[in-house]
Structures are given as structure tokens and as C-alpha cells.
Amino acid sequence: MTRELPGNRPILLKNDTCPYCGLMLDEGTATKEHVIARNFVPRGKLDGQWNLILRACRACNIRKSELEDDISAASMHPDAWGRFHNPDPMLLSAAARKAENCISRRTGKPIKESFEKIQIDVDFAPGVKMSFGCTAPPQLSSERVFELSRLQLMAFFYWLTYNAARKQGGWWLGEFVPIVEAPRSDWGNNLHRIFMDRVVDWHPRIIATGADGFFRIAIRRNPSAVCWSWALEWNHNLRIVGFFGEGETVEKLIQDFPAIHMATVVDNPNERITVREEKALEEKDDKLFWPKSGGA
Ligand SMILES: [Zn+2]
Questions:
Q1: Strands 227-234 and 238-245, how do they pair?
Q2: Strand extents, DSSP E, the chain
Q3: Collapsing DSSP states into helix, strand and coil, what is residue 68?
Q4: Alpha-carbon gap, residue 84 to 178, rounded angstroms
Q5: Residue 264 near residue 277, CB atoms below 8 Å
Q6: Would you say the pTM of this structure is higher than 0.90?
Q7: What tens digit of pLDDT does each residue of 156-167 get?
């Protein structure tokens, strides 16, 4: 089943079950849930835009907001050199406000103080010590990023399979398999590229840009198995990709996926240090959200 996006107004579901945990909703447990949360993107970016608004149970709604809080702050943050990809004033002010107010779940400090210093000391040669450091922008834990991805995808899948008469949508059967997340500076890494090549011809179920470009989603169906690929992009910065569906199919799909490229920065008989080598993606090679139409 495919759905058309309305373009400039919200999709409103009057659903009877929580799309995240399946609980039967009643007036006591139901809350209004914006799947692209208002404060997940810079202020005003959802005005006059589509969004998916449905009902969810209070517990799931609270859990999702808790994930959105520091993940949005970190995904709006400039890179390690203080550069913003998109100099939108609403992004700059939202990023500054969140840097003050959001606490990184990883460091326990406000996002603006959560730059992580990485100091590497090595014995370069007998009697010679070498040390170098670098500063990374606020880091997110992959588990939290994947959990929020799973919730957003569940909501969109619920909508794709929604039966208005029964007031219920469905869930995928099988596994949820996130592959990798990457900041903009690393969208061209080998794993993202092989993922893109493998799924670009699958049947698009939804390929959409929302919140004035600050949110993107792609769900594609495998032409010959009960399996879907998915991709998300948050705040022009963070991309996450993966699959859901039959575990066996996903396993076959990813068995030849390479490990992420690591660069060796120190290699001597006593010490070997590798760091993730970032690789940017040129726009002409970007097929992740192709074709760029609305709903499909
Ligand atoms: Zn729930």
C-alpha cells in the first residue's frame, strides 16, 4: 500500500491503538503525538508543512520526547570546526538555545559543554612520547539514535498500513536492524554507499522531505521479500539507515556489508590506533532520498 502526502497540512489519525506499543487507547491514556516533534526542528519549520499527527499512549509519548531532547540539540550543533551546513537563522538560534538548555545524556553536561576532548598519547619510539588531541562535537549514543529512529519509523509504517474504518495501523513483522548513523561529513562512507546502491531500485513506499528540509524519510519495499529498507535525515546533519522485516532476508542482505573504513593514525610495534575516516558525499552521488517527489 502507498500513501500520498498532503503537501502542506498535517495528516491526522484518530487511531485507537498506540503505534509504538500497541496499547488500546482511551481518553485517559491517549495523548496527541507529533511524529516530527515541534522542537525537534528549528522553530517555525513545521508551519504550513505536512506532519504526521496521531494518538499515542502517555508513556511512549514521554519516552519519545526524552529521546528527542538531546538528539535534536546534537543534530543541530555545528561540526567540530563550528561550521553549520545551513546558515538558516532559525537553526542558529535553536542550536544556541538547545546548547544552553539540553543536557547531553552521554556527558551529563549541557550540550555546549559536551565537546569531547580526545587525547591520544603514544610511545612513538623508545624515550619519545607523542601526543595529539582532537575535539569532537557532542556525541550521541547509537542506541538512543536507533531507538528514536525505530519510533519514527513505527509511526510512519502505522500510517502506511492504517485502516481508517478500524482506526488501526499495523506493525512490521520480524526484526528492526539499524545499520549505521553518520554526520554530514561522513555521508559518503562505504557502508552508506553500499546501502544506497542496494536499495535504490526497491519499491518506494514513502520518500519525503518535511519541516522545510529539516526532516527526511525513505521507506522502500524489497521487491521479492517481506523486508523494507529505511533512511532518516535529521536537521541536515545526521543520517541513519537500516532495514526491518524478515530476519533471514536482512541477514543475507548485510552479510557482505563491509566494516566502516578506519584510518590508521599510529602504527608501530607497540601501538596501533585507528579512527573512523570520514568521507563526504557529493550531491550528484546522493541517491538516498531519490526520487525527490513527495509520497510514492
Ligand atoms: Zn505506547
A1: antiparallel
A2: 11-12, 30-34, 52-57, 116-125, 128-136, 175-183, 203-210, 215-221, 227-234, 238-245, 262-268, 271-276
A3: helix
A4: 26
A5: no
A6: no
A7: 999 999 999 999
Cα(22) to ligand 1 centroid in Å equals 6
Distance 166 CA to ligand 1 centre (A): 18
Distance 232 CA to ligand 1 centre (A): 22
Q: How far apart are CA 44 and CA 137, in angstroms?
A: 25
pLDDT at 112: 75
Distance 53 CA to ligand 1 centre (A): 15
18 Cα: distance to centroid of ligand 1 (angstroms)? 5
Cα of 1 from ligand 1 centre, angstroms: 24
Question: Cell triple for residue 126?
Answer: 623508545
**DSSP bridge pairs for 212:** none
Q: 74-92: buried (b, 16+ CB within 10 Å) or exposed (e) per residue?
A: bbbbeeeeeeeeeebeebe
Gap between the Cα atoms of 151 and 59, Å rounded: 13
Cis peptide before 291 (omega within 30 of 0): yes
Q: In angstroms, rounded to a whole number, what is the distance separating the alpha carbons of residues 103 and 126?
A: 43
Cell numbers 570546526 correspond to 81
Model pLDDT, residue 211: 95
Residue 296 is predicted with a pLDDT of 36
**Residue 118 near residue 135, CB atoms below 8 Å:** yes
| Average of per-residue pLDDT across 62-86 | 85
What's the gap in Å between 168 CA and the centre of ligand 1?
Answer: 13
13-57, pLDDT tens digit by residue?
999 999 999 999 999 999 999 999 999 999 999 999 999 999 999
Question: Which residue did the predictor score with more confidence, 135 or 160?
Answer: 160
**C-alpha 48 – ligand 1 centre gap (Å):** 28
